[in-house]
């Protein structure tokens, strides 16, 4: 396959260049390029790909790492970014491969190829920075030093205080209070690892809705069931992110890369956090207790809200039915929890 010099220049420098290149060499329009064909195309005309000879050699060295002899657009983007030494772009593509099934990658990866990292995936980063800053503030204010399971700022305006539920901001702001450095580090690292790949693909406002729905569901359910418990920590939001990953992984199991390994990693994360919660709840003194109810509520909220708001790049008919069911259950669940919370004051 050949192109004139003008066409080659447009392909190499155009805004949609990588998708255009991929589609040109996807001769049977099935969304894949055979690796042996790609080797031949690159050797014959590296300039058609916008590659120097050195970059072409780098691309060919890394081709077909999973051994299936086929490249989809996502793998093509990853190879191109590595060959052209676009390190940040390469990280973006690798992160996106974690959360997008193979059959749905063309649209998000075409977007990421154009993505200039401005604005960056700021929601999870900003939330994490705020959580760290507030923990440091209370360490300094209470003069307790950094502890594994403290300090506990019970008089904070941010913590969920069951005796001051009229201050409605507390239903959200308790996520900024962490009981000890281990609690903080676990939540911050987990939400960054899970949240940023989702935010890159699905945009910040969708991830904000998933995360905050988990936080709100946690405080609403906890107060409805156990109205004497103080609540602290972002675990409701973290569990919502976990649930969003798990739901997406299960729905697209056959198409997700390293599905079993990812499922195992998520299971280990959940087991670790549950262990910490149980330890806090039953083995530390009363002021250090946190609620496992909020974790369960956050998880359920993540499944429901993730189904409703996260982008579905290739929607099937049965998925439309699931969307409406999830939307109805979400509305009903939050309405019920709000009513139960109001009834605590009657």
Automatic annotation (TrEMBL):
Enzyme Commission designation: 3.4.21.105
Keyword entries, A-Z: Calcium, Hydrolase, Membrane, Protease, Serine protease, Transmembrane, Transmembrane helix
Reactions performed catalytically: Cleaves type-1 transmembrane domains using a catalytic dyad composed of serine and histidine that are contributed by different transmembrane domains
Localization per Swiss-Prot or TrEMBL: Membrane
InterPro entries reported for this sequence: EF-hand-dom_pair (IPR011992), EF_Hand_1_Ca_BS (IPR018247), EF_hand_dom (IPR002048), Peptidase_S54_rhomboid_dom (IPR022764), Rhomboid-like_sf (IPR035952), Rhomboid_IM_Serine_Proteases (IPR051739)
UniProt keyword Ligase, yes or no: no
Membrane topology of this protein: Multi-pass membrane protein
An MF annotation (GO) of this entry: calcium ion binding
SMART domains: EFh (SM00054)
Keyword check for Hydrolase: yes
SUPFAM superfamilies the record matches: EF-hand, Rhomboid-like
Residue stretches making up the EF-hand domain: 13-48, 51-86
Gene Ontology, cellular component aspect: membrane
Sequence intervals crossing the membrane: 122-140, 171-196, 208-225, 231-251, 263-284, 290-310, 322-343
Family affiliation: Belongs to the peptidase S54 family.
Name of the protein this chain belongs to: rhomboid protease
Gene source species: Acanthocheilonema viteae (Filarial nematode worm)
Lineage, uppermost ranks: Eukaryota, Metazoa, Ecdysozoa, Nematoda, Chromadorea
